[in-house]
Amino acid sequence: MTEERHEVMDVTAASRHSFTVNLSILFGELPLLERPAAAAAAGFTAAELWWPFGEDHSPAETELDALRKAFTDAGVRLTGLNFLDDLVKGARGTVSVPSEKERFRANVPVAAALAASLGTPALNALYGNRVAGEDPAGQDALALENLVLAARAAHGIGAVLLIEALNRPESPDYPLVSAAAAVEVVDRVNAATGLGNARFLCDLYHLARNGEDPAAVIDAYADRIGHVQIADTPGRNEPGTGGLDFEDLFARLTAAGYTGPIGLEYRPSTGVSADSFGWLPREHRAA
């Protein structure tokens, strides 16, 4: 992104929102435990994470404590956390995957306890890919069982459960590749639990890559949105590097009554995370 793009971007709409930086994709050039401090140095006070322990669904307490300390020492709040997602091995979550049933269920209390200790208000459960040879209906039934467990665990710590649509070009085996598909699962989970804490994770990048109109999705599902994430398209870089009109989208979120944080889940176009925030003045970065 050029300085000229930074200068011409009108952040009036952005100033009405708070922002949280995804430390699984931003500041990835640093070791995990150094990223909260780097985010704080850039002016952010809130951050979110994919499952940060790779394939380890139940890390040692020393590892959990080290991560907690990194956030508390930096003065950064963890505002969102994934349940076991297996992203490190190319998976897209474990909720609907039969072979991961026990690992996912063992991870639920671990992730919930970590979230509770850091005051995290949202837990994200990636649905998981279709598995060759498995009945899709069976996977969906397993997903509902697991999401009910996850929703109850989230409710127990005062958090919401997020369900996310990804994009088909990058996740061809992931079944939730539209806002409508993700919202349908949200509604099923809420009907099963009666808790009403399952919410739609509205990722504007994934919606656009799927060919959906992000503005229309905001208008249609404002009452189901529990979190918003952003990256520009098509490169998944910072705002101003692609084709999305963030001024309009931020204004629409405000008009729709969305008051939660907006997660910055993009790859810095230059490879240097600290240089990718010029579109967002420092005074608007603190949550």
- What is the residue-mean pLDDT, rounded to a whole number? 94
Report Rg. Answer: 18 Å
* Largest sheet, spatial ordering of strands: 1-2-3-4-5-6-7-8
Number of strands: 8
Unreliable spans are: 1-8
Number of helices: 9
The ordered string of helix (H) and strand (E) elements is: HEHEHEHEHEHEHHEHE
User: What is the molecular shape?
Assistant: globular
What fraction, in percent, of the residue positions are helical? 25-40%
Share of residues in strands: 5-15%
Distance between the termini: 24 Å
What about the largest sheet? 8 strands, parallel, barrel
The computed structural class is alpha/beta
Concise structural overview:
The chain is of the alpha/beta class and 287 residues long. It is built from 9 helices and 8 strands. Helices cover 36% and strands 13% of the residues.
